[in-house]
Amino acid sequence: MSIQLKCQNCFAPLKLKDQRELIVTCPYCDSENVLPGTVKTITRVNAQRFSSLLYRYIAEEFNMTGIQDLIMKLNGRLQHASVDFDDLGGNDRRMKAMELVKWCQRRDELDTLTAVVQAERPSSVLELQQS
Length: 131
Ligand SMILES: [Zn+2]
Fold this sequence. Notes:
two-stranded antiparallel sheet, disordered C terminus, 5 helices, two-stranded antiparallel ribbon, binds zinc ion, 4 strands, mainly alpha, 131 residues
């Protein structure tokens, strides 16, 4: 059984060189595609790269109000701490998104943040089209 992977940006077929590969760069448009079902592994194996993808995605997809909303939903899922929008560094959405991702990374909550982002944007870049 094989899964046909497609680029989420241009729908070109993607080839996996290695089964352990978690992020595949599209040879046609250079988009970085995160493979489905691997988010948990990525946060451990490739946290730096994944968090940079995630923060850029949030900054592009959400405005300041959207990020505040994300934080509210994230706080609803966190058990031991909560994020304070105003305490996060930065005063534009790019900085806020970056600080939010860093905050979650420090507390090992990237999975939680990813789940919240995916719930808000079901067709998010973090999921790959399958056929
Ligand atoms: Zn592509």
